[in-house]
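2024-03-11 09:14:02 INFO queue: dequeued item L,D-TPase catalytic domain-containing protein, len=345
2024-03-11 09:14:02 INFO validating residues
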Amino acid sequence: MSFCSSGLKRVGAQLALVLIGVAPLAATAAMYDEPAEGSDIIGRVQHIKTQESDTFVALARQYDVGYRELRLANPDVDPWLPGNTDVIIPTAYVLPDAKREGIVINIPEMRLYYFPSKNSANAGKVFTFPIGIGRQGWGTPLGETRISQRIPNPTWTPPASIKKEHAEKGDPLPDVVAAGPDNPLGQYALRLALPSYLIHGTNKPSGIGMKVSHGCIRLFPADIEKLFSMAEVGMPVNIVSQPYKIGWDEDHLVMEAHPPDADGDAPVKSFTPWVQELIGATEDRPNTPVDWNLAERVARQTDGMPESIGGGAGGSRETAPEEAASTDVSPGDDADGNADPYRQG
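2024-03-11 09:14:37 INFO prediction written
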């Protein structure tokens, strides 16, 4: 059970796209056109070249991705001293297998999706944000709920259990943490009808994309501000656990896998879940050719990168410049020089 809201009160590409020496000034909310019926993919993978001063924590906030997402997509890069290195920014996503309404949170992915209502100014769009989730022993619960309250400038009254935990670490907490820069809830909070749980900001953005909370959902400050501006009381919230997401990009079958265990780090122990997902995804297209060996590799790697595993030819999900991309054949290309459209670099 989470107690993070106790006592809460309102107080007022391909690699051709290389950004050398240039980084976004600040993260902006990722907004995409909602895919047409029968399609499930949004976004495109980006490639950058890092600077000497970069770290994954900084890059995560700049590109609005989670720290772990960067680690999984770039396992051979030092997250603290990447140097001048080619780095993948994993900004292509298979949408969760859930009703595209309100907020959908996929715990293994550490990512939130928001589907505006049809009468909204943002109708037909999809927003997605990286999140921080409950750490071991404080897991974020699954299930359907709704937003019960919007709270700007929240205060925080830590419960006895959390005060005790902090006191044992030599970091005692006051009875009430006032709204402001020292408040761990940030500037905005959305209370869920699920007792004691919130979607909120943070005063420690480095924890986004990690298991750091006491069960609540944390967002980057800019992301919670954007979500808060669109969220309404009564909006549905669906918290799911889908480590294996399989969907369609037109006639191309695409798979995306994340570490499936509760803490998000243990290796795959059972193939049954992703096999079931794959069978379900192709139920309406039973004659779809599937590369089962490739699907198994994607399931084992759990690197969060969408990859084509069957169906017909599909377009690239890579961000590419206006000029023609390099024609060099990479190790991932087939005999005809056709690179996999979802995993390049």
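2024-03-11 09:14:37 INFO annotate: The two ends are 42 Å apart (CA to CA).
2024-03-11 09:14:38 INFO item closed
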